[in-house]
Amino acid sequence: MSATPDHGGSGASGRPARTAAVIPAAGRGVRLGPGAPKALRPLSGTPMLVHAVRAMAGSRSVSLVVVVAPPDGADEVRRLLDAYPLSGSLTDTTEVVVVPGGETRQESVRKGLAAVPETVTTVLVHDAARPLVPVDTVDAVAAAVRDGSPAVVPALPLTDTVKRVEPRTGERAGEPEPVVGTPERALLRAVQTPQGFDRATLVAAHEKIALEGEGATDDAGMVERLGVEVVVVPGHEEAFKVTRPLDLVLAEAVLARRRANDGF
Ligand SMILES: Nc1ccn([C@@H]2O[C@H](COP(=O)(O)OP(=O)(O)OP(=O)(O)O)[C@@H](O)[C@H]2O)c(=O)n1
Ligand SMILES: C[C@](O)(CO)[C@H](O)COP(=O)(O)O
């Protein structure tokens, strides 16, 4: 995988880059515990980030992947990606660019977005922390944007009931939080990535948030603040986010099941 610093307007194949994937991979992984940055943690011997890049590059529509590395780790990430080849004819025509990230996820996405050439009309934003997303899910998100939806998120129905609580503060900090409501579970979705956007919509959302400072925990949340409709397509259980140590155990089990199903 050629991790070139060139921000040129075309992919490695020389054709215009029409769909790009920005992979925010600059987080520290505090909830995962001490160790290397989360995106660099190995899953079955391959760094989590490499799994995520392969998932994006495996999509027929993606011709450019912008990896947003830890702010002081861009060179290390470039070397890492150069050491892991993309396989298959499709993915061999995917250019990989590495840029340094920022202090927040939204700042990292904004920095990655700045490296996406003007020729790109569809931008996917995918957490490196969701390394096992199936390519079919990536394709479905990209297709929904190309079919006219300016903002698309993959999501799953909830299996747990959700409660709204009133946090305890001051002298009552640490006491059990009172429940103040139970949203109707059937109307809730657990949202994943890649989230897909019309480029101009995503740029406008990040520019608005950069001015107003009202961050959101996902890019679709920022687009909603523009008053733009966000639509949901089916997510996938294997697109879960590696956040806590137990998620690493689950990720290894998923990879073991894939190897068994593939006969090796
Ligand atoms: N400043 C940041 C923070 C997060 N991310 C990326 O955003 C994705 C989702 O964030 P999260 O799962 O919260 O990762 P971390 O921030 O690393 O985890 P933690 O909150 O436990 O530190 C990850 O791929 C992470 O690398 C990023 O690019 N830049
Ligand atoms: C973008 C995201 O993965 C959608 O569920 C999630 O909001 C990221 O949250 P995090 O706390 O930054 O991991």
From TrEMBL:
<dbReference type="InterPro" id="IPR029044">
    <property type="entry name" value="Nucleotide-diphossugar_trans"/>
</dbReference>
<dbReference type="InterPro" id="IPR001228">
    <property type="entry name" value="IspD"/>
</dbReference>
<dbReference type="InterPro" id="IPR050088">
    <property type="entry name" value="IspD/TarI_cytidylyltransf_bact"/>
</dbReference>
<feature type="site" description="Transition state stabilizer">
    <location>
        <position position="31"/>
    </location>
</feature>
<comment type="similarity">
    <text>Belongs to the IspD/TarI cytidylyltransferase family. IspD subfamily.</text>
</comment>
<feature type="site" description="Transition state stabilizer">
    <location>
        <position position="38"/>
    </location>
</feature>
<dbReference type="GO" id="GO:0050518">
    <property type="term" value="F:2-C-methyl-D-erythritol 4-phosphate cytidylyltransferase activity"/>
</dbReference>
<dbReference type="InterPro" id="IPR034683">
    <property type="entry name" value="IspD/TarI"/>
</dbReference>
<feature type="site" description="Positions MEP for the nucleophilic attack">
    <location>
        <position position="241"/>
    </location>
</feature>
<comment type="pathway">
    <text>Isoprenoid biosynthesis; isopentenyl diphosphate biosynthesis via DXP pathway; isopentenyl diphosphate from 1-deoxy-D-xylulose 5-phosphate: step 2/6.</text>
</comment>
<comment type="function">
    <text>Catalyzes the formation of 4-diphosphocytidyl-2-C-methyl-D-erythritol from CTP and 2-C-methyl-D-erythritol 4-phosphate (MEP).</text>
</comment>
<keyword id="KW-0414">Isoprene biosynthesis</keyword>
<keyword id="KW-0808">Transferase</keyword>
<keyword id="KW-0548">Nucleotidyltransferase</keyword>
<dbReference type="Pfam" id="PF01128">
    <property type="entry name" value="IspD"/>
</dbReference>
<protein>
    <recommendedName>
        <fullName>2-C-methyl-D-erythritol 4-phosphate cytidylyltransferase</fullName>
        <ecNumber>2.7.7.60</ecNumber>
    </recommendedName>
</protein>
<dbReference type="GO" id="GO:0019288">
    <property type="term" value="P:isopentenyl diphosphate biosynthetic process, methylerythritol 4-phosphate pathway"/>
</dbReference>
<dbReference type="InterPro" id="IPR018294">
    <property type="entry name" value="ISPD_synthase_CS"/>
</dbReference>
<feature type="site" description="Positions MEP for the nucleophilic attack">
    <location>
        <position position="185"/>
    </location>
</feature>
